[in-house]
Amino acid sequence: MYNILITGGAGFIGSNFVKLIKNFKQFSKIIIIDKLTSSSNLKNINSYIDKKRIFFLKLDILDFNRLTSVFEQNKINSIINFAAETHVDLSINNPDVFVKTNIIGTYNLLACCLKYWNRDFSNKIFFQISTDEVYGSLSENDNPVNENHKYNPQNPYSASKASADFLVKSFQNTYGLNSIISHSCNNYGYYQHPDKFIPLTIRNILRGKNIPVYGDGNNYREWIFVDDCCRAVLSIFLKGKIGSNYNISTNKMLKNIELVNLICELSDNYLLENNKLKKSFPNSPIYNSNKSCDLITFVEDRPGHDFKYSINSDKILNEIGFIPKTDFKDGLLKTIDWYANNINWWSDVLKN
Questions:
Q1: Domain annotation covers residue 333
Q2: Percentage of the chain modeled with pLDDT above 70
Q3: Cα Rg for the chain, rounded, in angstroms?
Q4: Which one of 56, 96, 165, 182 is most buried, counting C-beta atoms within 10 A?
């Protein structure tokens, strides 16, 4: 039985993970904390909070004293750390907050474990949610990298996540903390911040605004539907080997321009089949005898833009038996449908 602390639990992946585990009885108490920045929203999880078994606290992981109180009052025996600043563009413009949250915040959580668990780590787990970006950029013909690949972060975001991973590993090695780290490829799906790549593309199609694509659009990314990523995290938490790293991927690799064109095609078909949405999105090209792909606009490339991420997930398949379930096009259609029918959600997020 776990009294589990979910940090960043009102954010994109964290809130979808809470949705997944809310009915799992082995989690006897679920404590969700989140700073509630622009990347998170209490509305994502409000319906799950019952104040009997599932609780929420607005809390910054930089606040060590309050973190300690949460541990003590709730007898926390496991952590999954989703809390992080994640937007690469923002990390380039304001690296300070990424260093504080992703590095110092992770250290605070580790220090709380050390203090409250009093170095007795039996039946306790610290699960760090990392990213494929810590491995760095690959060339076009490079093979997917496995968990033994060296870290080579190329921007302030990935460098801060790599630093956090090394802190976790150091507490495992030095103090015997039971830790696990996961590295996921790019997630997409419900509750993702409206300014991230896929939601922004969808929103601009709906509103008839230009779709910005960095450089020539030939950078590669690998994608996983958020529900599948959350199932992978749960499988690793329950079955993973302590001290291990696990890659979470799908082998669904596309150039950015290929992805945008696919979203345009799927969105146009979806909107034609749902003509009632014309009242909400009268400027969408397909309702004006045009195509969404006409909105694509190439913009100046991002500084230090990593060319390609690609990770090998044989380990999670062979050790745990995890396989993603969601077909990529089906996942995109679910995402398009969600953003088209949740305009109030993303409008509110953009106001904050």
A1: no
A2: 100
A3: 20
A4: 182
| Res. 120 pLDDT band, cuts 50 70 90 | confident
pLDDT in tens, 160-190: 999 999 999 999 999 999 999 999 999 999 9
Q: Starting at the earlier edge strand, list the strands of the sheet with 2-7.
A: 54-58, 27-34, 2-7, 78-81, 125-131, 179-184, 245-248
Whether this prediction's pTM lies above 0.85 is answered by yes
Q: Residue 57 sits in a domain of what CATH number?
A: 3.40.50.720
Helix axes 328-340, 343-351, angle to 10 degrees: 70
Q: Is residue 297 included in any domain, yes or no? A: no
Q: 79 is in which domain, residue-wise?
A: 2-189+223-251+305-325
How many domains in the chain? 1
What average pLDDT is seen over the chain? 96
Does residue 267 lie within any of the structural domains?
A: no
> What average pLDDT score do residues 264-290 get?
97
Please give the helix or strand (H or E) that residue 203 lies within, else none.
Answer: helix 197-207
For residue 223, how many other CB atoms are within 10 A of its CB?
20
Q: Is residue 64 part of a domain?
A: yes
Residues 40 and 101: their CA atoms lie apart, in Å, by 14
